[in-house]
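B., you asked whether I could sanity-check this one before it goes into the benchmark set. Here's the sequence:
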Amino acid sequence: KPAPPRTPGPLVATSDAAPVVPPWRGAQGVAAAAAAVVAESETQASDRSVRGSATHARLAELRGPCAGSAAEGAGGALSAAVSAHFLVARRGAPVLPEVATDLWAAVTSFEEPERLRELGGRGVCDLLYVFQAARGWQMHAAVCAVLVEGMCRDPDTFMLDLLLWPQTVALVADYLARHAAQPQIVARFLGLILVPLWAQYPKPVEAALLPHHILAVSTALVRSEGLLSSEASEIIRRTVMSWATANVSGLRPRGLSGVALALSRLGPSPGGDAVDAVLLRALLCRAAELVQVSADDPAAPFRPDWLGMLMCSLARGRYRGSGEGLRAILEAHLLPRAPAQESVPASSMQGILLPSELQNLALTAHATVKLDIHTVPLDPTDPASVALAALAPAVLQSCSNSNRGLQGAKGARSVGLLAHAFGVALLVAGPAEASPGALRGTLAGQRHLETVYERALMELFGASLRLPTKQEFRVHFQLLSALQCWWCAAGGPQASLGNLRLAHRVLEDTGRPNPIPGATESADGQDWITTKGHEEVVQALPAAFLERAVMEEFAFPFWLDVVLHPEGSVRAQLQSASGRELPLRTRGQP
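And here's what the prediction gave me:
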Protein backbone atom coordinates (compact mmCIF):
# COMPACT_ATOMS: atom_id res chain seq x y z
CA LYS A 1 0.00 0.00 0.00
CA PRO A 2 1.18 3.56 -0.53
CA ALA A 3 2.79 5.15 2.47
CA PRO A 4 0.70 7.75 4.34
CA PRO A 5 1.43 11.42 3.60
CA ARG A 6 4.42 12.87 5.43
CA THR A 7 5.71 16.37 5.94
CA PRO A 8 8.27 17.10 3.18
CA GLY A 9 11.82 17.66 4.30
CA PRO A 10 15.17 18.21 2.61
CA LEU A 11 16.40 14.64 3.11
CA VAL A 12 14.07 12.61 5.36
CA ALA A 13 10.41 12.83 6.26
CA THR A 14 9.37 13.52 9.86
CA SER A 15 6.41 12.14 11.76
CA ASP A 16 5.26 11.65 15.34
CA ALA A 17 6.81 8.21 15.48
CA ALA A 18 10.43 7.48 14.70
CA PRO A 19 10.95 6.19 11.16
CA VAL A 20 11.31 2.46 10.88
CA VAL A 21 14.68 1.56 9.36
CA PRO A 22 14.55 -1.77 7.52
CA PRO A 23 17.17 -4.35 8.43
CA TRP A 24 20.05 -4.07 5.97
CA ARG A 25 21.50 -7.27 4.69
CA GLY A 26 24.22 -6.14 2.34
CA ALA A 27 23.53 -5.49 -1.32
CA GLN A 28 20.40 -7.70 -1.41
CA GLY A 29 18.63 -5.56 1.17
CA VAL A 30 19.56 -2.39 -0.72
CA ALA A 31 18.33 -3.81 -4.02
CA ALA A 32 15.03 -4.80 -2.45
CA ALA A 33 14.64 -1.36 -0.92
CA ALA A 34 15.47 0.25 -4.28
CA ALA A 35 12.74 -1.80 -5.96
CA ALA A 36 10.32 -0.72 -3.24
CA VAL A 37 11.22 2.94 -3.87
CA VAL A 38 10.51 2.61 -7.58
CA ALA A 39 7.24 0.76 -6.95
CA GLU A 40 6.25 3.41 -4.43
CA SER A 41 6.92 6.22 -6.90
CA GLU A 42 4.78 4.49 -9.55
CA THR A 43 1.92 3.83 -7.10
CA GLN A 44 1.80 7.44 -5.97
CA ALA A 45 2.23 8.97 -9.41
CA SER A 46 -1.09 10.78 -9.06
CA ASP A 47 0.16 12.85 -6.13
CA ARG A 48 3.56 14.36 -6.98
CA SER A 49 4.17 16.02 -3.62
CA VAL A 50 3.43 12.86 -1.61
CA ARG A 51 5.55 10.82 -3.99
CA GLY A 52 8.43 13.26 -3.67
CA SER A 53 8.53 13.32 0.14
CA ALA A 54 8.16 9.54 0.52
CA THR A 55 10.68 8.80 -2.20
CA HIS A 56 13.36 11.09 -0.81
CA ALA A 57 12.84 9.64 2.67
CA ARG A 58 13.46 6.12 1.37
CA LEU A 59 16.44 7.25 -0.72
CA ALA A 60 17.97 8.84 2.37
CA GLU A 61 17.75 5.43 4.04
CA LEU A 62 19.37 3.82 0.99
CA ARG A 63 22.44 6.02 1.32
CA GLY A 64 23.14 4.86 4.85
CA PRO A 65 24.96 1.58 4.08
CA CYS A 66 27.23 3.40 1.58
CA ALA A 67 29.09 5.27 4.34
CA GLY A 68 32.38 3.44 3.85
CA SER A 69 34.03 0.76 1.79
CA ALA A 70 34.79 -1.27 4.92
CA ALA A 71 31.13 -1.98 5.66
CA GLU A 72 29.69 -5.33 4.67
CA GLY A 73 28.12 -5.16 1.23
CA ALA A 74 28.97 -1.49 0.85
CA GLY A 75 29.98 -1.91 -2.79
CA GLY A 76 26.67 -3.44 -3.77
CA ALA A 77 24.86 -0.91 -1.63
CA LEU A 78 26.55 1.93 -3.53
CA SER A 79 25.53 0.55 -6.92
CA ALA A 80 21.98 -0.08 -5.79
CA ALA A 81 21.67 3.38 -4.22
CA VAL A 82 22.90 5.06 -7.42
CA SER A 83 20.53 2.96 -9.51
CA ALA A 84 17.58 3.83 -7.25
CA HIS A 85 18.33 7.55 -7.45
CA PHE A 86 18.60 7.29 -11.24
CA LEU A 87 15.27 5.48 -11.64
CA VAL A 88 13.46 7.98 -9.44
CA ALA A 89 15.08 10.97 -11.21
CA ARG A 90 14.04 9.53 -14.60
CA ARG A 91 10.44 9.53 -13.37
CA GLY A 92 10.53 13.25 -12.70
CA ALA A 93 11.20 13.40 -8.96
CA PRO A 94 13.36 16.45 -8.13
CA VAL A 95 16.92 15.86 -6.90
CA LEU A 96 17.87 18.30 -4.16
CA PRO A 97 21.45 19.62 -4.02
CA GLU A 98 21.79 18.16 -0.50
CA VAL A 99 20.88 14.72 -1.85
CA ALA A 100 23.50 14.99 -4.61
CA THR A 101 26.12 16.09 -2.05
CA ASP A 102 25.42 13.10 0.21
CA LEU A 103 25.49 10.70 -2.72
CA TRP A 104 28.82 12.12 -3.92
CA ALA A 105 30.21 11.80 -0.37
CA ALA A 106 29.22 8.12 -0.40
CA VAL A 107 30.99 7.63 -3.75
CA THR A 108 34.19 9.37 -2.65
CA SER A 109 34.36 7.31 0.55
CA PHE A 110 35.72 4.46 -1.56
CA GLU A 111 39.36 4.30 -2.54
CA GLU A 112 40.28 5.53 -6.02
CA PRO A 113 40.61 2.21 -7.91
CA GLU A 114 37.55 0.60 -6.24
CA ARG A 115 35.27 3.58 -6.77
CA LEU A 116 34.70 3.16 -10.49
CA ARG A 117 34.92 -0.63 -10.37
CA GLU A 118 32.00 -0.80 -7.97
CA LEU A 119 29.89 1.48 -10.14
CA GLY A 120 30.83 0.10 -13.54
CA GLY A 121 30.17 1.89 -16.82
CA ARG A 122 26.40 1.94 -16.43
CA GLY A 123 26.64 3.06 -12.81
CA VAL A 124 28.81 6.03 -13.81
CA CYS A 125 26.19 7.05 -16.40
CA ASP A 126 23.40 6.78 -13.81
CA LEU A 127 25.39 8.81 -11.29
CA LEU A 128 26.07 11.63 -13.75
CA TYR A 129 22.38 11.69 -14.74
CA VAL A 130 21.41 12.18 -11.10
CA PHE A 131 23.94 15.00 -10.71
CA GLN A 132 22.64 16.68 -13.87
CA ALA A 133 19.12 16.59 -12.42
CA ALA A 134 20.26 18.40 -9.24
CA ARG A 135 19.62 22.00 -10.20
CA GLY A 136 21.83 24.57 -8.57
CA TRP A 137 24.39 22.02 -7.41
CA GLN A 138 27.85 23.57 -7.14
CA MET A 139 30.14 20.52 -7.22
CA HIS A 140 30.06 19.57 -10.91
CA ALA A 141 33.61 20.81 -11.56
CA ALA A 142 34.94 18.71 -8.65
CA VAL A 143 33.16 15.62 -9.99
CA CYS A 144 34.75 16.18 -13.42
CA ALA A 145 38.25 16.44 -11.97
CA VAL A 146 37.92 13.36 -9.73
CA LEU A 147 36.25 11.28 -12.43
CA VAL A 148 38.85 12.00 -15.11
CA GLU A 149 41.73 11.49 -12.67
CA GLY A 150 40.36 8.11 -11.63
CA MET A 151 39.76 6.89 -15.18
CA CYS A 152 42.98 8.21 -16.71
CA ARG A 153 45.30 6.97 -13.95
CA ASP A 154 45.05 3.41 -15.27
CA PRO A 155 42.90 3.35 -18.43
CA ASP A 156 43.38 -0.38 -19.09
CA THR A 157 41.69 -1.23 -15.78
CA PHE A 158 38.33 0.13 -16.95
CA MET A 159 38.54 -0.84 -20.61
CA LEU A 160 36.47 -4.02 -20.11
CA ASP A 161 33.71 -2.14 -18.28
CA LEU A 162 33.68 0.51 -20.99
CA LEU A 163 33.54 -2.14 -23.70
CA LEU A 164 30.49 -3.69 -22.01
CA TRP A 165 28.79 -0.28 -21.93
CA PRO A 166 30.46 1.75 -24.75
CA GLN A 167 28.08 4.71 -24.50
CA THR A 168 29.66 5.54 -21.13
CA VAL A 169 32.48 7.50 -22.74
CA ALA A 170 30.05 9.60 -24.81
CA LEU A 171 27.92 10.45 -21.78
CA VAL A 172 30.98 11.27 -19.67
CA ALA A 173 32.24 13.48 -22.53
CA ASP A 174 28.89 15.31 -22.51
CA TYR A 175 29.12 15.90 -18.75
CA LEU A 176 32.70 17.16 -19.06
CA ALA A 177 31.80 19.49 -21.93
CA ARG A 178 29.11 21.08 -19.75
CA HIS A 179 30.87 21.28 -16.40
CA ALA A 180 34.66 20.82 -16.65
CA ALA A 181 36.55 23.81 -15.26
CA GLN A 182 39.37 23.61 -17.84
CA PRO A 183 39.61 22.36 -21.44
CA GLN A 184 42.69 20.31 -20.45
CA ILE A 185 40.43 18.00 -18.44
CA VAL A 186 38.23 17.33 -21.46
CA ALA A 187 41.21 16.81 -23.78
CA ARG A 188 42.83 14.37 -21.33
CA PHE A 189 39.70 12.22 -21.16
CA LEU A 190 39.25 12.21 -24.93
CA GLY A 191 42.90 11.38 -25.62
CA LEU A 192 43.38 8.64 -22.98
CA ILE A 193 39.95 7.02 -22.72
CA LEU A 194 37.58 7.76 -25.60
CA VAL A 195 39.99 7.70 -28.55
CA PRO A 196 41.74 4.39 -27.58
CA LEU A 197 38.37 2.71 -27.06
CA TRP A 198 37.01 3.93 -30.39
CA ALA A 199 40.23 3.01 -32.20
CA GLN A 200 40.51 -0.53 -30.80
CA TYR A 201 36.84 -1.53 -30.91
CA PRO A 202 35.14 0.41 -33.74
CA LYS A 203 32.33 -2.09 -34.43
CA PRO A 204 31.00 -2.47 -30.85
CA VAL A 205 31.26 1.30 -30.39
CA GLU A 206 29.29 2.10 -33.55
CA ALA A 207 26.66 -0.49 -32.64
CA ALA A 208 26.07 1.19 -29.26
CA LEU A 209 26.11 4.84 -30.35
CA LEU A 210 22.98 6.97 -30.73
CA PRO A 211 22.58 10.43 -32.31
CA HIS A 212 22.82 12.30 -29.00
CA HIS A 213 26.09 10.47 -28.27
CA ILE A 214 27.53 11.75 -31.55
CA LEU A 215 26.48 15.30 -30.70
CA ALA A 216 27.93 15.00 -27.18
CA VAL A 217 31.36 13.90 -28.43
CA SER A 218 31.48 16.72 -30.98
CA THR A 219 30.63 19.19 -28.21
CA ALA A 220 33.46 17.82 -26.08
CA LEU A 221 35.83 18.05 -29.03
CA VAL A 222 35.00 21.75 -29.42
CA ARG A 223 35.30 22.23 -25.65
CA SER A 224 38.86 20.83 -25.72
CA GLU A 225 39.85 23.96 -27.67
CA GLY A 226 42.30 22.28 -30.05
CA LEU A 227 44.38 20.60 -27.32
CA LEU A 228 43.73 17.14 -28.79
CA SER A 229 46.27 15.83 -31.30
CA SER A 230 45.38 15.75 -34.98
CA GLU A 231 45.62 11.93 -34.99
CA ALA A 232 43.13 11.62 -32.12
CA SER A 233 40.77 14.13 -33.72
CA GLU A 234 40.90 12.18 -36.99
CA ILE A 235 39.90 8.95 -35.18
CA ILE A 236 36.86 10.71 -33.73
CA ARG A 237 36.04 12.18 -37.13
CA ARG A 238 36.28 8.81 -38.92
CA THR A 239 34.07 7.08 -36.35
CA VAL A 240 31.41 9.78 -36.55
CA MET A 241 31.49 9.72 -40.36
CA SER A 242 31.21 5.93 -40.47
CA TRP A 243 28.30 5.90 -38.02
CA ALA A 244 26.46 8.70 -39.84
CA THR A 245 26.89 7.01 -43.21
CA ALA A 246 25.41 3.77 -41.91
CA ASN A 247 22.49 5.34 -40.00
CA VAL A 248 21.46 8.47 -41.90
CA SER A 249 18.46 6.79 -43.55
CA GLY A 250 16.86 5.97 -40.18
CA LEU A 251 17.36 9.27 -38.37
CA ARG A 252 14.38 11.11 -36.92
CA PRO A 253 14.17 14.94 -36.83
CA ARG A 254 15.88 15.40 -33.47
CA GLY A 255 18.70 12.96 -34.18
CA LEU A 256 19.15 14.31 -37.69
CA SER A 257 19.64 17.86 -36.40
CA GLY A 258 22.14 16.71 -33.79
CA VAL A 259 24.18 14.66 -36.25
CA ALA A 260 24.20 17.54 -38.75
CA LEU A 261 25.53 19.88 -36.08
CA ALA A 262 28.19 17.34 -35.08
CA LEU A 263 29.37 16.97 -38.68
CA SER A 264 29.60 20.73 -39.14
CA ARG A 265 31.78 20.96 -36.03
CA LEU A 266 34.21 18.29 -37.16
CA GLY A 267 35.20 20.02 -40.39
CA PRO A 268 37.30 18.48 -43.18
CA SER A 269 40.08 16.00 -42.58
CA PRO A 270 43.77 17.02 -42.68
CA GLY A 271 43.91 15.67 -46.24
CA GLY A 272 40.98 17.82 -47.32
CA ASP A 273 38.53 14.93 -47.58
CA ALA A 274 35.11 16.34 -48.42
CA VAL A 275 33.00 13.37 -47.32
CA ASP A 276 31.33 15.67 -44.80
CA ALA A 277 29.70 17.52 -47.72
CA VAL A 278 28.41 14.19 -49.03
CA LEU A 279 26.92 13.44 -45.63
CA LEU A 280 25.38 16.91 -45.38
CA ARG A 281 23.70 16.25 -48.71
CA ALA A 282 22.37 12.93 -47.39
CA LEU A 283 21.13 14.62 -44.21
CA LEU A 284 19.41 17.37 -46.19
CA CYS A 285 17.69 14.79 -48.39
CA ARG A 286 16.58 12.89 -45.28
CA ALA A 287 15.18 16.10 -43.74
CA ALA A 288 13.25 16.87 -46.94
CA GLU A 289 11.94 13.29 -46.92
CA LEU A 290 10.68 13.69 -43.34
CA VAL A 291 8.93 16.91 -44.32
CA GLN A 292 7.29 15.25 -47.30
CA VAL A 293 6.13 12.25 -45.26
CA SER A 294 4.50 14.52 -42.66
CA ALA A 295 2.90 16.83 -45.24
CA ASP A 296 -0.61 15.91 -44.06
CA ASP A 297 0.25 16.36 -40.38
CA PRO A 298 -0.70 19.81 -39.03
CA ALA A 299 2.37 19.72 -36.76
CA ALA A 300 5.74 20.42 -38.35
CA PRO A 301 8.27 17.55 -38.02
CA PHE A 302 11.04 19.73 -36.57
CA ARG A 303 10.80 21.58 -33.27
CA PRO A 304 12.11 25.18 -33.27
CA ASP A 305 15.43 24.22 -31.66
CA TRP A 306 15.89 21.30 -34.06
CA LEU A 307 15.25 23.57 -37.03
CA GLY A 308 17.75 26.11 -35.68
CA MET A 309 20.37 23.39 -35.26
CA LEU A 310 19.81 22.05 -38.77
CA MET A 311 20.00 25.48 -40.42
CA CYS A 312 23.09 26.42 -38.38
CA SER A 313 24.77 23.17 -39.42
CA LEU A 314 24.11 23.71 -43.11
CA ALA A 315 25.39 27.28 -42.86
CA ARG A 316 28.57 26.11 -41.13
CA GLY A 317 29.08 23.41 -43.73
CA ARG A 318 28.24 25.93 -46.51
CA TYR A 319 25.93 23.42 -48.13
CA ARG A 320 22.47 24.07 -49.58
CA GLY A 321 22.19 21.58 -52.43
CA SER A 322 19.90 22.64 -55.24
CA GLY A 323 17.92 24.82 -52.85
CA GLU A 324 14.63 22.98 -53.38
CA GLY A 325 15.08 20.77 -50.32
CA LEU A 326 15.78 23.77 -48.10
CA ARG A 327 12.82 25.61 -49.59
CA ALA A 328 10.50 22.71 -48.74
CA ILE A 329 11.86 22.53 -45.19
CA LEU A 330 11.45 26.26 -44.59
CA GLU A 331 7.98 26.25 -46.14
CA ALA A 332 6.84 23.50 -43.78
CA HIS A 333 8.09 25.36 -40.70
CA LEU A 334 7.87 29.08 -41.44
CA LEU A 335 4.49 29.07 -43.18
CA PRO A 336 1.31 27.59 -41.71
CA ARG A 337 0.28 24.20 -43.03
CA ALA A 338 -3.42 24.98 -43.32
CA PRO A 339 -4.46 28.66 -43.38
CA ALA A 340 -7.54 29.37 -41.30
CA GLN A 341 -9.09 31.46 -44.10
CA GLU A 342 -8.48 31.19 -47.79
CA SER A 343 -8.47 34.99 -48.10
CA VAL A 344 -5.44 35.29 -45.79
CA PRO A 345 -2.14 35.03 -47.73
CA ALA A 346 0.33 32.52 -46.38
CA SER A 347 3.04 35.17 -46.06
CA SER A 348 1.04 37.07 -43.43
CA MET A 349 0.70 34.09 -41.09
CA GLN A 350 3.22 32.65 -38.66
CA GLY A 351 4.97 29.27 -38.47
CA ILE A 352 6.55 27.43 -35.57
CA LEU A 353 9.18 30.08 -34.74
CA LEU A 354 7.44 32.22 -32.14
CA PRO A 355 8.81 35.46 -30.65
CA SER A 356 10.03 33.50 -27.61
CA GLU A 357 12.32 31.46 -29.88
CA LEU A 358 14.75 34.35 -30.36
CA GLN A 359 17.89 32.26 -30.73
CA ASN A 360 16.31 29.91 -33.28
CA LEU A 361 14.90 32.90 -35.15
CA ALA A 362 18.42 34.30 -35.38
CA LEU A 363 20.01 31.01 -36.47
CA THR A 364 17.41 30.44 -39.18
CA ALA A 365 17.59 34.00 -40.53
CA HIS A 366 21.40 34.00 -40.54
CA ALA A 367 21.61 30.64 -42.31
CA THR A 368 18.99 31.68 -44.87
CA VAL A 369 21.02 34.73 -45.87
CA LYS A 370 24.39 32.99 -45.70
CA LEU A 371 23.16 30.19 -47.98
CA ASP A 372 21.67 32.80 -50.35
CA ILE A 373 18.13 31.43 -50.37
CA HIS A 374 16.50 34.47 -48.75
CA THR A 375 15.00 35.62 -52.08
CA VAL A 376 13.34 32.29 -52.91
CA PRO A 377 9.54 32.31 -52.37
CA LEU A 378 8.57 29.57 -49.96
CA ASP A 379 5.07 29.45 -51.45
CA PRO A 380 5.25 29.42 -55.29
CA THR A 381 1.84 31.13 -55.47
CA ASP A 382 2.91 34.04 -53.22
CA PRO A 383 6.03 35.91 -54.42
CA ALA A 384 6.26 37.79 -51.10
CA SER A 385 6.52 34.61 -49.00
CA VAL A 386 10.30 34.73 -48.65
CA ALA A 387 11.91 33.41 -45.47
CA LEU A 388 12.80 36.73 -43.85
CA ALA A 389 9.35 38.15 -44.54
CA ALA A 390 7.85 35.11 -42.77
CA LEU A 391 10.21 35.65 -39.82
CA ALA A 392 9.69 39.41 -39.60
CA PRO A 393 6.45 39.37 -37.50
CA ALA A 394 8.05 37.18 -34.84
CA VAL A 395 11.18 39.36 -34.87
CA LEU A 396 9.11 42.50 -34.31
CA GLN A 397 7.33 40.91 -31.35
CA SER A 398 10.56 39.55 -29.88
CA CYS A 399 12.03 43.05 -29.66
CA SER A 400 9.49 44.06 -27.00
CA ASN A 401 10.61 44.70 -23.44
CA SER A 402 8.56 41.77 -22.12
CA ASN A 403 10.47 39.11 -24.06
CA ARG A 404 12.54 37.05 -21.63
CA GLY A 405 14.86 35.83 -24.38
CA LEU A 406 15.96 39.39 -25.08
CA GLN A 407 18.36 39.56 -22.16
CA GLY A 408 22.06 39.27 -21.46
CA ALA A 409 24.82 38.09 -23.74
CA LYS A 410 22.66 35.44 -25.46
CA GLY A 411 20.06 38.03 -26.40
CA ALA A 412 22.80 40.33 -27.71
CA ARG A 413 24.22 37.58 -29.93
CA SER A 414 20.77 36.81 -31.33
CA VAL A 415 20.09 40.49 -32.07
CA GLY A 416 23.48 40.80 -33.79
CA LEU A 417 22.77 37.83 -36.08
CA LEU A 418 19.28 39.06 -36.91
CA ALA A 419 20.41 42.63 -37.62
CA HIS A 420 23.19 41.42 -39.90
CA ALA A 421 20.81 39.09 -41.78
CA PHE A 422 18.14 41.75 -42.37
CA GLY A 423 20.77 44.37 -43.22
CA VAL A 424 22.40 42.20 -45.88
CA ALA A 425 19.00 41.19 -47.29
CA LEU A 426 18.01 44.84 -47.53
CA LEU A 427 21.25 45.77 -49.28
CA VAL A 428 21.42 42.97 -51.83
CA ALA A 429 17.69 42.95 -52.64
CA GLY A 430 18.15 44.96 -55.83
CA PRO A 431 15.86 44.65 -58.86
CA ALA A 432 14.02 41.35 -58.93
CA GLU A 433 14.93 40.71 -62.58
CA ALA A 434 18.69 40.96 -61.90
CA SER A 435 18.90 37.64 -60.06
CA PRO A 436 17.77 34.45 -61.85
CA GLY A 437 15.74 32.14 -59.65
CA ALA A 438 15.13 34.86 -57.08
CA LEU A 439 11.98 36.75 -56.25
CA ARG A 440 10.32 37.91 -59.47
CA GLY A 441 7.51 40.19 -58.42
CA THR A 442 6.25 43.61 -59.19
CA LEU A 443 8.07 46.74 -58.12
CA ALA A 444 5.40 47.24 -55.46
CA GLY A 445 6.17 43.79 -54.03
CA GLN A 446 9.87 44.60 -53.97
CA ARG A 447 9.19 47.86 -52.12
CA HIS A 448 7.00 45.97 -49.67
CA LEU A 449 9.85 43.61 -48.78
CA GLU A 450 12.26 46.52 -48.37
CA THR A 451 9.79 48.19 -46.00
CA VAL A 452 9.43 44.97 -43.98
CA TYR A 453 13.21 44.53 -43.75
CA GLU A 454 13.83 48.14 -42.76
CA ARG A 455 11.17 48.09 -40.05
CA ALA A 456 12.59 44.89 -38.56
CA LEU A 457 16.08 46.38 -38.73
CA MET A 458 15.02 49.53 -36.87
CA GLU A 459 13.36 47.45 -34.14
CA LEU A 460 16.54 45.40 -33.77
CA PHE A 461 18.64 48.58 -33.55
CA GLY A 462 16.36 49.85 -30.79
CA ALA A 463 16.59 46.53 -28.91
CA SER A 464 20.39 46.55 -29.17
CA LEU A 465 20.54 49.73 -27.09
CA ARG A 466 19.13 47.77 -24.12
CA LEU A 467 21.58 44.87 -24.44
CA PRO A 468 25.32 44.35 -23.75
CA THR A 469 26.11 44.24 -27.46
CA LYS A 470 29.54 45.83 -27.01
CA GLN A 471 30.95 43.10 -24.77
CA GLU A 472 31.72 40.85 -27.74
CA PHE A 473 33.53 42.29 -30.72
CA ARG A 474 31.73 39.98 -33.15
CA VAL A 475 28.29 41.24 -32.08
CA HIS A 476 29.51 44.84 -32.26
CA PHE A 477 30.86 44.22 -35.77
CA GLN A 478 27.59 42.63 -36.90
CA LEU A 479 25.60 45.65 -35.71
CA LEU A 480 27.94 48.12 -37.39
CA SER A 481 27.86 46.08 -40.62
CA ALA A 482 24.05 46.05 -40.50
CA LEU A 483 24.08 49.80 -39.93
CA GLN A 484 26.34 50.31 -42.94
CA CYS A 485 24.14 48.06 -45.07
CA TRP A 486 21.05 50.05 -44.08
CA TRP A 487 22.80 53.37 -44.82
CA CYS A 488 23.73 52.30 -48.35
CA ALA A 489 20.33 50.72 -49.08
CA ALA A 490 17.82 53.01 -47.36
CA GLY A 491 19.74 55.74 -45.57
CA GLY A 492 20.78 59.18 -46.74
CA PRO A 493 18.18 61.62 -48.16
CA GLN A 494 15.39 59.02 -48.30
CA ALA A 495 15.64 58.04 -44.60
CA SER A 496 13.21 59.45 -42.06
CA LEU A 497 14.45 61.70 -39.27
CA GLY A 498 13.49 59.13 -36.62
CA ASN A 499 15.47 56.37 -38.31
CA LEU A 500 18.47 58.67 -38.72
CA ARG A 501 18.44 59.55 -35.04
CA LEU A 502 18.18 55.88 -34.07
CA ALA A 503 21.06 54.97 -36.37
CA HIS A 504 23.12 57.79 -34.87
CA ARG A 505 22.47 56.46 -31.35
CA VAL A 506 23.55 52.96 -32.37
CA LEU A 507 26.70 54.37 -33.96
CA GLU A 508 27.60 56.42 -30.89
CA ASP A 509 26.72 53.72 -28.37
CA THR A 510 30.06 51.97 -28.53
CA GLY A 511 30.47 51.56 -24.78
CA ARG A 512 34.25 51.67 -25.27
CA PRO A 513 36.88 54.34 -24.77
CA ASN A 514 38.28 53.53 -28.22
CA PRO A 515 35.74 52.31 -30.81
CA ILE A 516 38.52 51.04 -33.11
CA PRO A 517 39.18 47.34 -32.34
CA GLY A 518 42.69 46.22 -31.50
CA ALA A 519 44.65 43.37 -33.04
CA THR A 520 43.46 40.83 -30.45
CA GLU A 521 39.77 41.63 -30.95
CA SER A 522 40.09 41.64 -34.72
CA ALA A 523 41.69 38.18 -34.70
CA ASP A 524 39.12 36.66 -32.32
CA GLY A 525 37.39 33.67 -33.88
CA GLN A 526 39.11 34.04 -37.25
CA ASP A 527 40.44 31.14 -39.32
CA TRP A 528 43.45 32.66 -41.03
CA ILE A 529 44.48 31.59 -44.54
CA THR A 530 47.94 32.58 -45.67
CA THR A 531 48.72 34.30 -48.95
CA LYS A 532 50.42 31.08 -50.07
CA GLY A 533 47.16 29.24 -49.44
CA HIS A 534 45.29 31.74 -51.61
CA GLU A 535 47.84 31.32 -54.38
CA GLU A 536 47.49 27.53 -54.30
CA VAL A 537 43.71 27.80 -54.60
CA VAL A 538 43.92 30.19 -57.55
CA GLN A 539 46.59 28.21 -59.36
CA ALA A 540 44.40 25.09 -59.14
CA LEU A 541 41.67 26.81 -61.19
CA PRO A 542 41.13 25.79 -64.84
CA ALA A 543 42.79 28.00 -67.43
CA ALA A 544 39.48 29.50 -68.56
CA PHE A 545 38.75 30.71 -65.03
CA LEU A 546 42.32 31.70 -64.27
CA GLU A 547 42.16 34.50 -66.84
CA ARG A 548 39.23 36.09 -65.00
CA ALA A 549 40.50 35.60 -61.43
CA VAL A 550 41.55 38.45 -59.14
CA MET A 551 42.90 38.20 -55.60
CA GLU A 552 41.80 40.43 -52.74
CA GLU A 553 39.19 42.71 -54.20
CA PHE A 554 36.91 44.88 -52.06
CA ALA A 555 33.15 44.38 -52.48
CA PHE A 556 31.15 46.17 -49.81
CA PRO A 557 31.13 45.29 -47.00
CA PHE A 558 33.85 42.62 -47.32
CA TRP A 559 37.27 41.98 -48.76
CA LEU A 560 36.99 38.93 -51.03
CA ASP A 561 40.00 36.62 -51.18
CA VAL A 562 39.45 35.37 -54.73
CA VAL A 563 37.05 36.92 -57.27
CA LEU A 564 36.01 35.33 -60.56
CA HIS A 565 34.57 38.04 -62.80
CA PRO A 566 31.73 36.98 -65.14
CA GLU A 567 32.77 36.04 -68.63
CA GLY A 568 32.40 39.00 -70.98
CA SER A 569 32.37 41.60 -68.20
CA VAL A 570 34.29 44.84 -68.67
CA ARG A 571 36.71 43.96 -65.88
CA ALA A 572 37.47 40.54 -67.38
CA GLN A 573 38.03 42.05 -70.86
CA LEU A 574 40.41 44.68 -69.48
CA GLN A 575 42.35 42.06 -67.58
CA SER A 576 42.57 39.78 -70.62
CA ALA A 577 43.70 42.70 -72.85
CA SER A 578 46.43 43.64 -70.40
CA GLY A 579 48.08 40.27 -70.90
CA ARG A 580 48.38 39.58 -67.20
CA GLU A 581 47.43 36.09 -66.12
CA LEU A 582 46.79 36.99 -62.48
CA PRO A 583 47.71 40.01 -60.32
CA LEU A 584 49.34 37.96 -57.56
CA ARG A 585 51.18 39.80 -54.84
CA THR A 586 54.78 39.12 -53.97
CA ARG A 587 54.93 37.18 -50.73
CA GLY A 588 55.41 39.52 -47.81
CA GLN A 589 54.20 42.53 -49.79
CA PRO A 590 51.27 44.33 -48.06
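One thing to flag: The mean pLDDT is 76. Otherwise nothing jumped out at me.
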